[in-house]
Amino acid sequence: MKNTYTFYEAIEQNKRKTWIIFFLISILLFFVCYSIIYFFNLGEIAIFIALIVTLTVNYYAYKNSDKLILSISGAYEPKKEEYPYLINIVEGLSIAAGIPTPKIYVINDSSPNAFATGKDPKNSAIAVTTGLLEKMNRLELEGVVAHEISHIKNYDVRLQTIAVVLVGLIVILGDSLKRSFYYGSFYSGEKRRNKDQNFLGIISLIIALLAPLLATILRFSLSRQREYMADATAAMLTRYPEGLASALEKIAKDPNPVKRANNITAPLYIADPLKKYNVNNLFSTHPPIEERIKRLRMMGERWKLMGVK
């Protein structure tokens, strides 16, 4: 009972952390929006406009971010007869995990990879590349699908999916604010002679510089432990850690990046789709893949010693 309690406690903790990070990213978005709107000389009403913009964007991100990500990734819903074995695996593992079967999408790309997206287990989707379907055997494919289903079960997808849209917008707006500052478009006429405006311009530049950075750090702050947790949960679902470990090895060895992936969507994938495994720092989208493989195989060895089948 203790292990089961701890596992569900971890899921509840994930939910709480999701809302905290969502709130912090929203604050950063508000400050960036306000910094831009203020320079239209709207006075105090700029605060209310920025608040409305922030709330509207948050609502859109919550409702539509999963659809937007699938569209950006070039994912499509295949016909049932195209990949019956994939549908069979997803349905079987969903039953084992105790969640509704997610929608299944395929990305036409030779690089083996996959990701999950959605708001909760009732509104979720799994996308896999054709490269994954072609290069993995059944046990390896089960391991990858189980990993993505674990993200759905653990409520990781809610944070990652919404954060992708919000952080992407913060980066774009922050870049626009920096460019406007550099080119002096915020300082013309009387504004150039207004010391308060100049001071606010400096503050705005600082926000523009720091908001994308802080938002990115917030998004990545939980990604490593969540990946390890999803790996462990996947191993428990399949009862075969080696399947996922072998799949990760193949993914790591494949030299081709996912064509439609980018820095914003990269954290969603099971392994870095941009093939930047050598970057091991605060901004890594994933924990070291070698360490993930090592942990899975150590889990398998412990299970053998314990007689777990």
Explain the overall architecture:
The chain is α+β, with helices and mostly antiparallel strands and about 300 residues long. It has two domains: about 1-70 and about 170-220, no CATH class; about 70-155 and about 225-305, Zincin-like (2-Layer Sandwich), CATH 3.30.2010.10. It has eleven helices and four strands. It has helices at about 1-40, 45-70, 85-95, 130-135, 140-155, 155-180, 190-195, 195-220, 225-240, 240-255, 290-305; strands at about 75, 105, 115-120, 125-130. Strands 1-2-4-3 form a four-stranded mixed beta sheet, sandwiched between helices. The model is unreliable at about 1-5 and about 190-195 (pLDDT under 50).
In short:
Its EC number is 3.4.24.-. With 309 residues, the protein is α+β, with helices and mostly antiparallel strands.
Oligomer: single chain
Radius of gyration: 22 Å
CATH class of the largest domain: Alpha Beta
Proportion of β residues? 5-15%
Count of discrete alpha- or pi-helical segments spanning 4 or more residues: 11
Strand-pairing-aware structural class: alpha+beta
Q: What is the percent of helical residues?
A: 55-70%
Fourth CATH level, the homologous superfamily of the largest domain? Metalloproteases ("zincins"), catalytic domain
The CATH architecture designation of the largest domain is 2-Layer Sandwich
Note the main sheet. 4 strands, mixed
Strands side by side in the biggest sheet:
1-2-4-3
What is the overall pLDDT average? 83
Q: How many structural domains does the protein architecture include?
A: 2
Order of helix and strand elements from N to C terminus: HHEHEEEHHHHHHHH
Membrane topology: Multi-pass membrane protein
EC number: 3.4.24.-
GO biological process, one term: proteolysis
Family: Belongs to the peptidase M48B family.
